[in-house]
Specification:
By secondary structure, the chain is mostly helical. It has 14 helices and 6 strands. The longest helix has 54 residues.
Length: 398
Amino acid sequence: MMKAEPKTILNFLANYFDSLKDLFDLQAESSIIRKEQLAEILADRGNEILPQLLDYKILRKLGDDFEFRDTYFKLFEFILNEFRPLLPETIQKYESSISLLFKKIRDGINGDKLILTSRINDLYNEIKEFSEAVEKNTIRLLAETRELKSNVDKLDYKEKVRKASFWIDYYITPLNNILDINHSESITNRLFDISNYVNIRRLNFDDEVIRLQFEKLYVFLVQTNDDLLKQSKLLTNELLPLIERIRTESVILTGWIEFLKAPNKVTLPKVFKTERHYPYSNDMYLNAQEYVQQFENEETIILEDPRASSDKWVFNKDLYKDKMMQQLPLDSFFEWCGLTLKSEYEQIETDKLFALTALLFEDGISLEVDANDDRSLIRTSQMNLRVPKIKINRYGIS
């Protein structure tokens, strides 16, 4: 029975981490730690810690040899980010367990509340284990593929092709099928059905405690769906094309090396004549030279300010209104306009005459037009105008 305090165990793991990592690497490689290997590692580091390893339940005996307990082995896997890739059929087992738990939840939805609660928790944990297994496999497969791409182990091309084909056929393609929601037998498709059912139950179940459990499970399923979609995209968009490229490149290079070993045994294909083409015209240099030369002879350019325009006439409406009001009544408005402009400017300008016509619309005057009277003629600086005879009175009184 373990008597050590939790903090003591954690301090032990920290103090002897290097030795424990060496033991973890041995088990990850051979699935077991031989007693000779254990003794050698502990002796090299000067650590006499075998009693603590057994007392703290870190290792357990397996005949004369040893192995990590599963809890500590998974801890080191997580810390070191080194996971053993699981075969897709190992991950596929979750489809059966998840489907069975889901069926029991539906069949016993109106049964014992404690049993239903326990089944919902078990389903939650089973889905969580499945999601973590997929994530670990993707991480490990990506690491293996990148090592294969960089050829850390200095493998020859034939071995690289064999290994790339092995990863595709036994791990990547089957795992991608498991995550394909369009596949009727995939676990992802089953999780989609479960989420629809749980979504309904979290909204209308009569027991508050179980309704909250369904709420928790639904939120987790939504997050799991996003995580699995991310892993599926990683497999489809990055991992599978990368390893396919390794396989294709290796086949091409292998064939090229074989050709170089005996080039005379193979009939060479027709070699095309190389030609050089430019993305610009052959006359571009001469055209550019001609364009530049036109600016070489500078010409004197004189810029002169334009003549200042004459002051623009501004119609002072109030001034002319006062003049008109003082001379009321008027027998002919346009005749008064002509006389007024002539007295001020010596000639009648058309624009000024038209400006004065605005006085016809002022308040305090009345207009009278005799349609039978002949029109008057006014000569302006630009034209001759025939205008009607308009009488103006103040407020209608002459």
